[in-house]
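ok so I'm stuck.
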Amino acid sequence: MRKKFIDIIKNIDYPYTSAIVNNERIGFLDEVDENSKYELIKIDDMEGMRTYERTLTFLISYIFNEFYNLKIEIKHSFGDAIYAEVQGKNNIEEIIPKIKEEMNNLIKKDITIKKLTLRKEEASDLLFKANSNYEPKLIKYLSKDTLSLYSINNYYSYFLGPLLPKTGMIKVFDITPFKSGFLIILPDKKNFYKLGKINKSKKLFSTFEESKKWACSLGIKYAGDLNEKIVKNEIIELILSQEALHEKKIAEISEMIRKKNSKLILISGPTSSGKTTLSKKLKIYLKVLGLNSISISTDDYFFDRDKTPKRENGEPDYESIDAIDLNLLQKHLDLLIDNQSIDLPKFNFATGKQEIGEKIIPQKNSIIIIEGLHSINPVLTEKIKDSLKFKIYISPLTQINFDNLNRIPTRDVRLIRRIVRDNVFRKITPKETIKKWSDVIGGEEKNIFPFQDDVDTMFNSSLFYELPVLKFFAEKDLMSIENIDKEYYKASILINFLQHFASLSDDYVPTTSILREFIGGGLINAQ
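replied:
not stuck anymore, here's the structure
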């Protein structure tokens, strides 16, 4: 017999937000077999936090609509917070206290949130008639027949994942004015009875905002806009415009390096950001400016896998800076700066061993380009003067969202990039990539993000058209993961994610695009 999960497991409360049943994510409002085995998900799980975030977003959008007839727009994450703006209104500082007061009233009343599963035509009609948050093109091009709406007091919205079943399950949050909008502050992931930290990175925020404004200027604000361009075969000029912007940014960075007279370029960012392509493109642009350069990847300095440091659970810690042979890397840097040749190592990801690579013979005053997870970690280049360094942080900061309430998480884009790249280039299965993902994220939070604002510039490697192309590769990879596998939990979420995009053949991707680093067929990385 099937029942709503909340009717089977009574008295569920914070910090639990959702569950895993038969290796699939379910919300507490979903129906399951009464005797199903389950695992509860808390706030400290990424998907658990996202359920909490979606519910907060839904309730705050309801209050803005109910009391002020205003619609909010979720823009992007910012540390342990979500940045949002109010459509058509910049000065909202005076109404934020009222919004918080009404949120607290809503929580005290512990109102039930309803879930409706409808055919997409029915859902579209209901959203249109209710005058709720509604992005018709998103639903129009959705490649599944049914979808779920959530409602409270006849206010309806669509979300890509489950919500909490009652308003009273919101326990920790804050809303504070910020820039032209406001921040929705989420719980701390490690201590979820306290508020999380607000990111203070001005560079990261401005990079996000610049990219979104640029995408909007091309008429691509939401996923539905992109899908419509693909379906109507109006995508080619937009792709070329996006690629031209990347080239313009790299040209600008090259000029900055020349003017600063930098001798060491350090490129860092989280996994699957496009560090390798950026380093190779910079080498070309610097050559145009009359500057010779040498490219080095910290990945090639990995110790053999049997020498990789271990985590507390005994698993290899590939994200640790101690997984890199720092002594050899620093020795090679000293030799290159002294214009002496080196035998560059080459790490073989298939065998897990370091091999002998090419011989590097530097020209006089050659610029050294180092790319890798730890490149901007001060420990890596501690013996070199800071005045000689030029630091670049690269990450694919998403330029578009699904609609005004459903954002596209950067981490999911990077995971999809990595699944495709690992399968194409490293013969690593999607199952293995997903299995290691939480360790990768933990390593980034510890080893990369603390240094992200201590850079000369940031480069957004996101391409607004990349998800339709990645879908072309990733869907079949994700579908290879079976329901009996634990990794099916995340795979099914990503499959649902990709169903919101029309497919786009990789024939549309220029051979010089940064996207070629993940799908293959690139001219830049073939050199």
